[in-house]
Amino acid sequence: MTSEIENMSGSYSLQTVDKKSPPDESITVMSEKEAAIMDPGHTESQPSCSLSISKVSYTVSERVGPWWDMPSYTKKWTRQILNNVSFHVDSGEIMGILGNSGSGKTTLLDAIAGRIGNAGTLEGEVFVNGRKLRRKQFQDVFSYVLQSDNLLSYLTVEETLTFTAQLSLRGYSSDAIQKRVAAVMAELSLGHVAHSVIGGRIFPGISGGERRRVSIASQLLQDPKVILLDEPTTSLDSMTANQIVVLLAELAKRDRIVIVTIHQPRSELFRIFSKIAIMSRGELVFCGQPGEMVDFFNSCGYECPEYCNPFDIYVDLTSVDTRNSEREVATYNRMHSITSAYQNSDIYEGMLGKIQKCCQPQEKPSIPFKSRTSPTCASKLWVLLRRTMKNLSRDRMGVLMRLSQNLIYGLFVAFFVMRLNDDVDRGAVQDRIGIIYQSIAATPYTGMLNAVALFPALRAIADQESMDGLYHKWQMFLAYVIHIIPFSVISVFIFTSFLYWTVGMNPEPWRFASFSGVVLVPHFIGEMLTLALLGVVHDPNMVNSGVALLNIAGVMLGSGFLRSNKDMPRVFQWLSYLTFQKYGCELLIFTEFHSSNFTCSESSVVPGACSMISGDNIIDASYPGAETRFTMDFLLLYAFLPALVILGIISFRIRDRLIRR
Ligand SMILES: Nc1ncnc2c1ncn2[C@@H]1O[C@H](COP(=O)(O)OP(=O)(O)OP(=O)(O)O)[C@@H](O)[C@H]1O
User: Where is the composition biased (Polar residues) (predicted)?
Assistant: First the structure.
């Protein structure tokens, strides 16, 4: 198939252009392949599936003005995004939805796919094989390819599809999954790039058209009967865009319904579409076969000039020009008169008749659900974990960043402190407290930076795949959290091993183990708190600032370094129990100072400077009872981790409600 599609440009046949023939006849170039697709005889069987959209309307309530203009901000108006849209498509057909920007194409697809949010009021009905779909059935019937390709950059095409198949198909042996993946790759002409990596912004991979095809292939794995695609040709050159549409037409011919929104199709595609719908201002201005479209516009008095692209002409004719109020009124009236003419036409009547016939009470075919046997929660988690791990382990910069950030930070501290000594007057206590402060206060930032840099891409994939019903967003969160464990442990261990022994902290092994065990937690917390907030806050920069502020507040309240705990107002004392810094600092102070003795140099001039040369005195002065709380402090410190996992799961469950598209 690859060669067939890629040779398309070479096999175009030039048709004679007859000046008198109507515009639909005057399409000048068309490949043999396209001609075969257009050929009605090409359909091997009767349509096995039908999709009817009946009177779909969507309204949202919006504030009239911006928040800084209070009088208008307090008022609301109702905006009609979709207005009474109805159409009917049978399997074997590909329908193109055209319209200028903002005409409601994507909203219509969202409405059909049941992905419209709760922001507005959705009315109307969607029937598949004459059976009205219930809300929770939408996801199991439609496959939806979004405008942007959300794919993991470091996986190959075959790996990408295999992981998706493992997430969506249950009870398939690995052999069967491989066969399914191979079949889909063959159907989408991806065989030649099976072992190529997807690629990303900073390193090359497969081409834009191939990425589109991988996104479509991911949807085909579940063998859907209805595929919706939002602007699949956006940002592709026109040749590749044409190839994608021809490919989609081929998919439709294999007993599927394909609905695609498209901005500026080339005129060659005129006959590729079985149906063309034109939208403007949320209304369906026209919906019918390409030939009917030309006849209809001719009958309205708008002939497509010779050598012009009918798509461009008809979309322009039906668009509302808002550059000034006169043009707006004139173009709106024109659009309205064309819409009225369509609603009074036989084409519209015929379409309504088809919807009615489909929905009449009789023996109807069942709803063609996608492969509904989804793997168990544990196996999905396992697949997500392997996928995330594989992707990250190939990201050299990502791995390097993860492992080295803490170490680089340790280098700064070590370089600054150099070597600890035991003389109080030469900073024996102050330097040690400084290192403890830095170890607790700064390690959350490295965790936070990792999450902000690496997680949003995965979050976008989770948003899409959860809408496809492959898994829940929180499962991706959990897989991500599990996959950071080895990296974080190694990274913190490198940091503590370097810093601890370089600056010469207390050399007893249990103290080093305790120091490492404590420092690991803030690093984890920084990353997990960031992940949890990324569930409900979309902008990573805001999350960045939020986590940084929370960390600063936690250090002030909990560490006891800025202000001793016993000197703080009661409310701050209570709040300090909610900070991990309280337990972490107390543990590190105890670990370093317990049973230690410090000396004073003879040059000491501060009276009483040497009164606290015992480490236990230092502990008793600021953290009384730290020794008895040692185990409890550890337990409470580590309790933050499961608590954050739970918080993250809740946050990503909330995200399920927030993100609809
Ligand atoms: N939930 C919503 N609240 C307010 N306005 C909305 C909402 N959803 C869509 N709209 C508005 O409805 C109009 C249609 O949006 P839609 O994305 O469907 O257009 P489109 O035809 O797909 O545009 P484009 O081709 O540029 O993607 C836009 O003006 C958009 O701002």
Answer: 1-16
Domain assignment present for residue 387? The answer is no
Report CA(470)–ligand 1 centroid distance (Å): 26
When pLDDT is averaged across residues 628-644 and rounded to a whole number, the result is 96
Whole-number Å distance, alpha carbon 149 to ligand 1 midpoint, is 20
**Strand pairing partners for 77?**
62
Q: How many domains does the structure of the chain reveal?
A: 2
- CATH assignment of the domain containing 41: 3.40.50
Name the nearest CA neighbour of 410 among 488, 506, 491, 498.
Answer: 498
Distance (Å, whole) CA 121 – CA 58? 6
- C-beta 101 within 6 A of ligand 1: yes
The model's pLDDT over 213-242, given as tens digits with 9 standing for 90+, comes to 999 999 989 888 899 999 988 878 888 888
Q: Is the CB of 107 under 6 A from ligand 1?
A: yes
Which residue's CA is the closest to the ligand 1 atom numbered 8?
107
Q: What is the mean pLDDT of residues 391-404?
A: 90
Atom 16, ligand 1: residue with shortest CA distance:
104
Query: CB under 8 Å to 462, separation ≥6 — which residues?
Result: 471, 473, 476, 477, 652
Residue nearest to atom 28 of ligand 1 (CA): 102
**Measuring CA to CA, how many Å separate 17 from each of 25, 179, 306?**
8, 46, 9
Residues 532 and 648 reside in one and the same domain:
yes
One-letter amino acid for residue 540 of the chain = P
The predicted complex's ipTM stands at 0.96
User: Are 282 and 428 members of one domain?
Assistant: no
Domain extent at residue 533: 393-598+615-658
Q: Same structural domain for residues 291 and 404?
A: no
> Are 403 and 507 in a shared domain?
yes
**Which range is least confidently modeled, 311-325, 478-492, 510-524, 641-655?**
311-325
Is residue 586 in a domain?
A: yes
Q: What is the CA radius of gyration of the chain?
A: 32
What's the whole-number mean pLDDT along residues 414-435? 87
Same domain, 402 and 308: no
Q: Is 262 in the pocket of ligand 1 (CB under 6 A)?
A: no
Q: What is the pTM of this model?
A: 0.83
Contacts of 112 (CB under 8 A, 6+ apart): 51, 53, 56, 126, 142, 228, 259
Question: 422 and 286, same structural domain?
Answer: no
pLDDT at 605: 55
Residue at a domain's end among 303, 322, 341: 322
Taking the centre of ligand 1 as the mean of its atom positions, its distance from the CA of residue 209, in whole angstroms, is 25
Asked if 523 and 411 sit in the same domain, the reply is yes
User: pLDDT at position 594, please?
Assistant: 92
Instruction: Using the CB atoms, write b or e for 566-601: b if 16+ within 10 Å.
Output: eebeeeeeebbeebbbbbbbbbbbbbbbbebebebe
Q: Which atom of ligand 1 is nearest to the CA of 109?
A: 18
* Within a domain: 358: no
Tell which residue, 77, 42, 41, 82, has the closest CA to residue 58.
82
Best substitution site from 76, 106, 121 to test ligand 1's pocket, by max atoms within 8 Å of Cβ?
Answer: 106
Task: Name the domain boundary from 322, 344, 365.
Answer: 322
104 pocket-lining for ligand 1 (C-beta < 6 Å):
yes
Q: Report how far ligand 1's centroid is from the alpha carbon of 57 (Å).
A: 13
Residue 362's pLDDT band, with cuts at 50, 70 and 90, is low
355 belongs to a structural domain: no
14 and 107 both lie in a single domain: yes
CA of 92 to the centre of ligand 1 (A): 29
